[in-house]
């Protein structure tokens, strides 16, 4: 069963920045792009490198370990949509960012 869980304060995620959090046992990376908050699994499926050290490129993140790039909106690996990381719905209410996990 999924439910909304507060992951961070809205002020903790600045524009163009990342914030790693753990929600319900899942390692998640919160990212703000163009004012929108994205939540993506903080783990590259290639060798399990954390994505938090990666480089943000528009609406994607490039893993710092081996340059695999994932779309923040879908979680898809840009070279093959057969490979994905989990993405989570987010909502901002009363100054808090919640994630649906």
TrEMBL record:
<keyword id="KW-0479">Metal-binding</keyword>
<dbReference type="Pfam" id="PF00355">
    <property type="entry name" value="Rieske"/>
</dbReference>
<dbReference type="GO" id="GO:0046872">
    <property type="term" value="F:metal ion binding"/>
</dbReference>
<protein>
    <submittedName>
        <fullName>Rieske (2Fe-2S) protein</fullName>
    </submittedName>
</protein>
<dbReference type="InterPro" id="IPR017941">
    <property type="entry name" value="Rieske_2Fe-2S"/>
</dbReference>
<keyword id="KW-0411">Iron-sulfur</keyword>
<dbReference type="GO" id="GO:0051537">
    <property type="term" value="F:2 iron, 2 sulfur cluster binding"/>
</dbReference>
<keyword id="KW-0408">Iron</keyword>
<dbReference type="InterPro" id="IPR036922">
    <property type="entry name" value="Rieske_2Fe-2S_sf"/>
</dbReference>
<feature type="domain" description="Rieske">
    <location>
        <begin position="5"/>
        <end position="99"/>
    </location>
</feature>
<keyword id="KW-0001">2Fe-2S</keyword>
């Amino acid at each position: 069963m999924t439910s909304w869980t507060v992951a961070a304060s809205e002020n903790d995620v600045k524009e163009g920045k990342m914030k790693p959090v753990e929600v319900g046992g899942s390692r998640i990376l919160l990212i703000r792009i163009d004012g929108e908050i994205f939540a993506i699994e903080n783990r590259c499926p290639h060798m399990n490198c954390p994505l938090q050290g990666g480089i943000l490129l528009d609406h994607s993140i490039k893993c710092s370990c081996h340059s695999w790039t994932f779309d923040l909106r879908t979680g898809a690996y840009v070279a093959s949509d057969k490979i994905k990381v989990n993405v989570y719905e987010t909502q901002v209410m009363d100054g808090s960012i919640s994630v649906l996990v």
